[in-house]
Amino acid sequence: FSGGFGGMPGFSARTPLEKLMAKAKQVVNEALDVPTVEMALVDSDWLLRITAVEHFGNPPAQTSEWERLLPQMEKLAMDDDSAIRSAADDKLHWFPETEQFLAERLTNETSPDVILELLRDRNVGNELNDRFLELFVPLLSYPDEKVREDALWFVSFNSNRAPMLQFSFGMDVYDRVIASTQAISAKERAAAASALTDIRQLDANRSR
């Protein structure tokens, strides 16, 4: 605040740097109009693409103008990069006509974090836990090694997440983690070893 109490000097609610950053953000938002975002969505530069995705739909009042870009956003929601997929899914939630598309996305998604983002707006509590595990557990034995590694690291950080985002892993997860400790890939074995430290209480004898 400016001024203060009882003659005591006050402090500014926003520093000069914060004001400059806010102004810069405003300029960027104004520059990223529909035509500009449309071009950036198909650019080969990763940073431009994800910036365009994150600004998609701003301002919301221009919904009708953004709708024609929904096919391109749906394409990005199936991109090889999980960060772009997650950002695209988040924006597509704003448009009711994409509900069926997003529901179908769940059955093909291979990133635990993206699956979680797709579920969080529709499921809470035990429902979220059960639905997430239904989609997550198969990833631990997925044919693609990178998918298995990402799933194992997700298990390893379970206890470090906020309580509402910690999952009740069972023996189906434990058995798959144990199997990965014998994997050919050193990276997968390392991820499995880390995951095991977080769930060893499920079977203390086997995890020794």
Write the layout of secondary structure elements.
Blueprint: H1 16-31, H2 34-40, H3 46-55, H4 63-67, H5 70-76, H6 82-92, H7 99-106, H8 112-120, H9 125-136, H10 145-156, H11 171-180, H12 186-199
In short:
The chain has about 210 residues and is mostly helical. It has helices spanning about 15-30, 35-40, 45-55, 65, 70-75, 80-90, 100-105, 110-120, 125-135, 145-155, 170-180, 185-200.
Characterise the protein shown here.
This protein has 208 residues and is mainly α. The chain has twelve helices and no strands. The protein has helices at 16-31, 34-40, 46-55, 63-67, 70-76, 82-92, 99-106, 112-120, 125-136, 145-156, 171-180, 186-199. Helix 10 runs parallel beside helix 12.
Give structural attributes:
208 residues; mainly alpha; 12 helices
State the assembly state of the protein chains: single chain
Total strand segments:
0
* Rounded average pLDDT: 84
- Write the element-wise H/E pattern from the N-terminal end onward: HHHHHHHHHHHH
The major sheet is characterized as: none
Number of DSSP helical runs: 12
Helix content: 55-70%
Q: Name the structural class.
A: mainly alpha
Q: What gross morphology would you assign?
A: elongated
Low-confidence stretches: 1-12
Rg, please?
A: 22 Å
Q: Roughly what fraction of the amino acids lie in strands?
A: under 5%
Q: For the record, give the distance between the C-alpha atoms at the N and C termini, rounded to a whole number.
A: 58 Å
